[in-house]
From TrEMBL:
Transmembrane segments: none annotated. GO terms for biological process: DNA recombination. It comes from Candidatus Fimiplasma intestinipullorum. Residues 107-141 form a coiled coil. Involved in DNA recombination. The keyword Coiled coil applies. This is DNA recombination protein RmuC. Pfam families: RmuC. Keywords: Coiled coil, DNA recombination. Belongs to the RmuC family.
Length: 367
């Protein structure tokens, strides 16, 4: 029994050893298989890693070339943009400099003009003061009016004694400022300059009282009436001058005062055949007179031209008669020439016939 148990134990131990050995072999085989699989897997991983690395390197190389190209294009584009920006900036700077320089130059010119205008204003101020001094004296006012009147006449007619005469002496021994030689039926019109300024100034002076201004207004009207009467009595001479005369007032303000607020003075001047004018209205009157003078001259020339045309018409009539006679003579001569030409042709043909006849006779003698 014990032997059997011992044998059984030995068998169990052997079986256990076998099982352990078998298990160990299986583990070794399994380890080899795992190692083989690991080696295969490592090989595959290496190959895949190599492929990935090669692909990555190719992509990196392609990307590097692409980036280099992009960088080159970007550099070119940036250079071009910078060049354009530089040109635009330079152009704007140049333009800005030119504008600034032009503005500065214009400012200098304006300052120069302002300085010149300031000098002119100072000169004008002195002239105004001088003019006030001139207008303050009655005699100098008269000279001022005469000078202005002469300037107006020279501006319209020039220096033409055939149309106007300055300081003309009349048959009554008096001298008018201007004697205007207008076309008929107007005839010679006397123009005299009057400058009633003192009472006008007092009349419009707001610093004076109403009573003082009213008194000045009455004196102003009396001055104007006296001037109208003097001109009508001195410078309207029947048989020598026109039946009307002109009173020239050098100041537009005085003229406007008369026509705006003193209609009685206007009516009085019309009744006396004295026309009151200012520089503006006299210029219009002289311009109208200039047109009349030119029309008169054209009419005079038209009569002369008509006379010359009549003489020329007679010459043309005489020319027509002589031309007709010449045509007839030419026609007769032409007919005679034609007849002579026909006779010459006949004579020529006869000579040719005679010449041909002699030629034939000579040939017959030869034969």
């Amino acid at each position: 029994m014990e032997i059997a148990i011992f044998m059984l134990a030995i068998v169990n131990v052997i079986g256990l050893v076998y099982l352990v050995s078998l298990q160990k072999n299986e583990q070794l085989a399994s380890q080899k298989l795992v190692k083989a699989q690991m080696a295969e897997l490592e090989k595959r991983n290496s190959e895949q890693m190599m492929q990935i690395w090669q692909g990555t390197m190719e992509r990196l190389d392609h990307l590097s070339h692409s980036l280099n190209d992009d960088f080159d294009r970007l550099a070119d584009l940036t250079e071009k943009r910078l060049f354009l920006i530089n040109e635009k900036v330079s152009a704007r700077l140049d333009s800005g400099f030119e504008k600034t320089s032009g503005a500065y130059q214009e400012m200098l010119e304006r300052m120069a003009r302002i300085d010149e205008a300031q000098k002119k204003l100072e000169g004008l101020q002195n002239e105004v003061v001088s003019l006030q001094n001139i207008l303050g004296d009655k005699k100098t006012r008269g000279i001022f009016g005469e000078v202005q009147l002469n300037h107006l006449l020279e501006n319209v007619f020039g220096k033409n004694d055939g149309i106007y005469q300055v300081q003309a002496k009349l048959p009554n021994g008096l001298v008018c400022d201007v004697l205007l030689k207008a076309p008929e039926p107007l005839g010679k019109i006397a123009i005299d300059s009057k400058f009633p300024l003192e009472n006008y100034r007092r009349m419009v002076d707001r610093t004076l009282s109403d009573a003082q201004r009213q008194t000045a207004s009455k004196q102003f009207k009396e001055d104007i009436k006296k001037h109208i009467q003097d001109i009508a009595g001195k410078y309207i001479l029947p048989g020598y001058t026109s039946d009307q005369a002109i009173m020239f007032i050098p100041a537009e303000a005085v003229y406007a005062e008369i026509y705006a607020y003193h209609q009685d003075l206007v009516d009085f001047s019309l009744a006396k055949h004295v026309w009151i004018v200012s520089p503006t209205t006299l210029m219009a009157t002289l311009t109208t007179l200039e047109v009349l003078v030119k029309d008169q001259q054209r009419s005079k020339y038209a009569v002369q031209i008509q006379d010359e045309l009549q003489l020329l018409a007679k010459e043309f009539e005489r020319y027509q008669q002589r031309w007709t006679k010449l045509v007839r003579n030419v026609e007769g001569i032409s007919k005679d020439v034609k007849d002579v030409s026909i006779t010459a042709d006949k004579i020529t043909r006869r000579f040719e016939e005679i010449s041909n006849a002699k030629h034939y006779e000579a040939e017959e003698e030869v034969f």
